[in-house]
Each structure stands twice: as C-alpha cells, then as structure tokens.
Write a structure and sequence with these properties.
The chain has a two-stranded antiparallel sheet with strand order 1-2. The radius of gyration is 20 Å and the shape is elongated. A hairpin with a 5-residue loop joins strand 1 and strand 2. It has five helices and two strands, in the order αββαααα. By secondary structure, the chain is mostly helical. The chain starts with 8 loop residues before the first helix and ends with a helix. The longest helix has 23 residues.
C-alpha cells in the first residue's frame, strides 16, 4: 500500500480569495455611479451595469450579447466606429 498526501490548504485559501475578489468586483461594477460596460472581441456587449441601464433606458438582459455598434451607434457613423 502506497499513500500520497498533499496539503491543499493554501490552494483552498487562494481560491476562496479569488472568489471573494470576483464578487467584490462584480458588486463594484453593478453599483458604480458611472456607466460601465464591456464588449468581447466581436464587439458584443458582455457587461452592462445598473447606471448604463438607467442612463440609456436599456436593461442589461435586453442588451447582453448585442453588438454595441449595431445597438447604439447611429447608422451614418457605424462604418467609422467599426474600423477602430
């Protein structure tokens, strides 16, 4: 019989700290008194905080996954914005 042990206390501590920090960051983004949004590399909205919803009148669940350019940029400016 061979037994191998490994102390995972530090791994669990770090994992718990990372989860706490992620939760804190999500709360900060959600409650910020400024518009905060994020897009993926295709330009689709992947984050939309409460202030963005309040200022634009568009709820998070309505804009998530939508193209920022298609949803919010005027037609005559879309080509210019997409080239950036």
């Amino acid at each position: 019989v061979i037994a191998v042990g490994h102390d995972i206390t530090e791994i669990r501590r770090v994992t718990a700290e990372q989860k706490r920090e992620a939760k804190d960051m999500a709360t900060l983004i959600r409650c910020a008194n400024a518009i905060i949004f994020s897009v993926d590399i295709q330009g689709r909205l992947i984050e939309w905080n409460n202030k963005a919803a309040q200022m634009t009148g568009h709820a998070k669940e309505d804009v998530m996954g939508e193209s920022l350019v298609d949803y919010f940029v005027a037609d005559d400016s879309k080509e210019l914005v997409q080239s950036v």
